[in-house]
Specification:
By secondary structure, the chain is mostly beta strands. It has two domains: 96 residues, no CATH class; 128 residues, Galactose-binding domain-like (Jelly Rolls). Helices cover 5% and strands 50% of the residues.
């Protein structure tokens, strides 16, 4: 599997970074002059324009290597949206994208920190419980898992990342007030699937809202997701030539355009 490389800073992009969503409507005009318009899902696409500056020789070689291996526009690769949430159904913990321990019960419609009622109350009865989601992404990349959490009774909750046989976790103290927890982590596993989740102590009840994973060192503003996450498995280059500019010894820059359906 080919992946868009992550920079040494732990991100996949730099500012300015432009994301554009294109959609197409097909219109059919009848003989009587009436027009029927239908959304064309086959014409929808997402495009990114990345300006990458100050690249090291290794970073430029990785980017150029991907371009060669993908044969320019012809091939596809996995692209992790630098402006998106890599998890799907970020507010629907009962969705099939999420796995949970049999001891964990979920109750939706709980008041959330943004003034709505999209939080979920997770209760682990009898034994330690967990809820997690796996994404098809490199196990060795830098990620940041974040979630809003609160509890009237449970003292802690643990966030974790797992890839292959390696797991990293961090325990957070909880309070009755909502708090956004952030867990930056980088594993060494060359796996093609990474799992992110929260672990509850036995008998704990914790309110959770807004799970988010980003391929960077820290959390940005929360982005709600549904079925579509920020992992694009069919991305491709939207340029015929990858032009490199030398800014000095061991420092390069280039503009990259990427497109995905």
């Amino acid at each position: 599997m080919l992946y868009f490389p992550q920079l040494s800073t732990g991100s996949t992009a730099q500012f300015p970074c432009l994301k554009r969503i294109r959609e197409r409507t097909v219109a059919t005009e009848a003989e009587d002059g009436s027009v029927v318009k239908l959304f064309d899902p086959g014409g929808s696409a997402v495009e990114w324009e990345l300006e990458l500056d100050g690249l090291s020789g290794e970073e430029w070689a990785a980017l150029e290597g991907l371009f060669q291996n993908a044969e320019g526009r012809a091939g596809s690769f996995v692209f992790l949206d630098p402006l998106g949430n890599l998890l799907s159904w970020s507010e629907e913990l009962a969705a099939t994208a999420w796995e949970k321990a049999g001891t964990v019960g979920l109750t939706g419609g709980v008041s959330d920190p943004l003034g709505g009622s999209s939080a979920t109350r997770a209760t682990s009865s009898g034994a330690q419980g967990w809820i997690e989601q796996a994404i098809a992404a490199p196990g060795s990349y830098q990620y940041c898992l974040s979630v809003y959490a609160r509890s009237d009774t449970a003292p802690t909750v643990t966030l974790y990342e797992r890839a292959g046989a390696e797991t990293a976790n961090l325990r957070f103290a909880l309070a009755p007030a909502w708090r956004r927890l952030e867990f930056p982590c980088k594993l060494a596993q060359a796996a093609e699937t990474v799992t992110f989740g929260a672990r509850l102590e036995a008998g704990a009840t914790v309110d959770l809202f807004g799970f988010q994973v980003e391929a960077q060192t820290g959390a940005s503003a929360y982005k709600r997701t549904g079925a579509r996450s920020g992992v694009y498995a069919n991305a491709c280059f939207a340029v015929d030539v990858l032009e490199m500019r030398s800014e000095g010894p061991g420092a390069y820059s280039c503009a990259v355009r990427i497109r995905a359906r």
